[in-house]
Design goal:
This protein is of the alpha/beta class. The protein is about 35% helix and about 20% strand. The model has no long low-confidence stretch (mean pLDDT about 95).
């Protein structure tokens, strides 16, 4: 049986650049940074005191107050962006054929802020004072369960975890579920809300974050020779994925087609990439093969681009392995330069950026690129957006644990 084709019909986002996909995109093409001093906690005791925070978010805009109190911040983000995406797609909540509608989300940790809060209560007041809501709030699958409950979607449901690549894994797996006929529509994406003292302390111990606290908007500088680490961030993005015929039958607006999906393992180190980039290259090649495309048919690459010395160098090597001489001609940009590293949400935010790149014919820049690195010598679209006709994109995500996950998308099918 011929596999079914999968398209994107709805987008939703909460980001350091704004709380809709539209505002996020406008911030990106303007080359504006959403990074600033951390406000959710006092970061003064730590070497990194900056982050990309979601500001002005009110869960009451998307959930009943009682329900919001029982949900972690990351689950609130997921419900909000799912509802944005479903509205954008013109789909109904509580549909009559709800068994054909599913939820497949990518998450990272089990909500560091809630873990930190309840551990303090246990230490200071005793374990009998821990909230009865703590366990259901922090189970990894509860985010997907809450989204399904809020939407009334009763079909396929799952949660995947691949650290910084979780969003791409969710999108790729959701497309596979639809392609094999186990759902007609799925909300998929990535979600993160880990800004708290416990999270900051944990990442500070790794010594992988930028310490440019006096210049927060210029701290994240992927591929620049003076890069000194990633900038933490939070955020969320949801995509409505839909079987092509289902979308056509209801005359839906189609943003793009999910054409390919590739996964590989570095099997090298818990937090560092394989230096020669070979694992990353394998994931890119598998995504291209899955899409039935040659490397020269890719017109834009959204890089993982974390602003760490090791990752940016390895990703550049991997792109050269896959694309050969053409690597110097394909434009590449790093969304993280403007929003920071939103961990499990990062890939989903970048998928939104890729889709809107194709829609509008504009490639957003890699900002803060002022000192060329001879090791990173490709076209990273430095500092200023660029007009370009783009119909095929490759989005890279490379996670702790050596999980490499890439997706290929192309413009709406005829």
């Amino acid at each position: 049986m011929r596999q079914r084709r999968v398209v994107v019909t709805g987008l939703g986002a909460l980001t350091p650049l704004g709380n809709t996909a539209r505002d996020f995109w406008h911030g990106l093409i303007a080359g504006r940074s959403g990074v600033g001093r951390i406000t959710q906690i006092d970061p003064s005791g730590y070497p990194t005191q900056i982050a990309g925070e979601v500001r002005g978010f009110d869960p009451a805009d998307y959930m009943e107050a009682k329900e919001a109190r029982r949900a972690s911040r990351v689950t609130q983000f997921a419900v909000a962006t799912a509802r944005q995406a479903v509205l954008d797609a013109g789909l109904a909540e509580q549909p009559s054929d709800a068994a054909h509608y599913g939820v497949l989300l990518g998450v990272g940790n089990t909500s560091f802020p809630d873990v930190e809060q309840q551990l303090k209560i246990m230490v200071e007041r005793g374990g009998r004072h821990v909230s009865p809501l703590f366990m259901p709030m922090t189970l990894p699958n509860m985010t997907a369960g809450t989204v399904a409950l809020q939407l009334g979607w009763r079909g396929y449901i799952s949660t995947v975890a691949a650290a910084c690549a979780s969003g791409n894994l969710a999108i790729g797996e959701a497309a596979a579920v639809i392609a094999r006929g186990d759902a007609d529509v799925i909300v998929a994406g990535g979600y993160e809300a880990a800004i708290c003292e416990f999270g900051l302390a944990s990442f500070s111990a790794l010594r992988a974050m930028s310490t440019r606290n006096e210049q927060p908007t210029t701290a994240c500088r992927p591929f620049d020779a003076t890069r000194d680490g990633f900038v933490p961030a939070e955020g969320a993005a949801s995509l409505v994925l839909e079987e092509l015929g289902h979308a056509i039958d209801r005359d839906a607006h189609i943003y793009a087609e999910v054409a390919g999906f590739g996964v590989s393992s570095d099997a090298y180190h818990p937090v560092s990439p394989r230096p020669d980039g070979s694992g990353m290259a394998t994931a890119m090649l598998r995504a291209l093969r899955n899409a039935g495309l040659a490397p020269r048919e890719i017109e834009y690459i959204n890089a993982h681009g974390t602003s760490t010395q090791l990752n940016d160098a390895a990703e550049t090597l991997a792109i050269k392995q896959v694309f050969g001489d053409y690597a110097y001609n394909v434009p590449i940009s790093a969304t993280k330069s403007m929003v920071g590293h939103a961990l499990s949400a990062g890939a989903a935010l970048e998928a939104v950026a890729c889709i809107l790149t194709m829609r509008d014919g504009v490639i957003h820049p890699t900002i803060n690129y002022n000192h060329p690195d001879p090791v990173c010598d490709l076209d990273y679209v430095p500092n200023v957006s660029r007009k370009a006709t783009v119909s095929t994109v490759l989005s890279n995500s490379f996670a702790f644990g050596g999980q490499n996950i890439c997706i290929v998308m192309k413009t709406s099918p005829d």
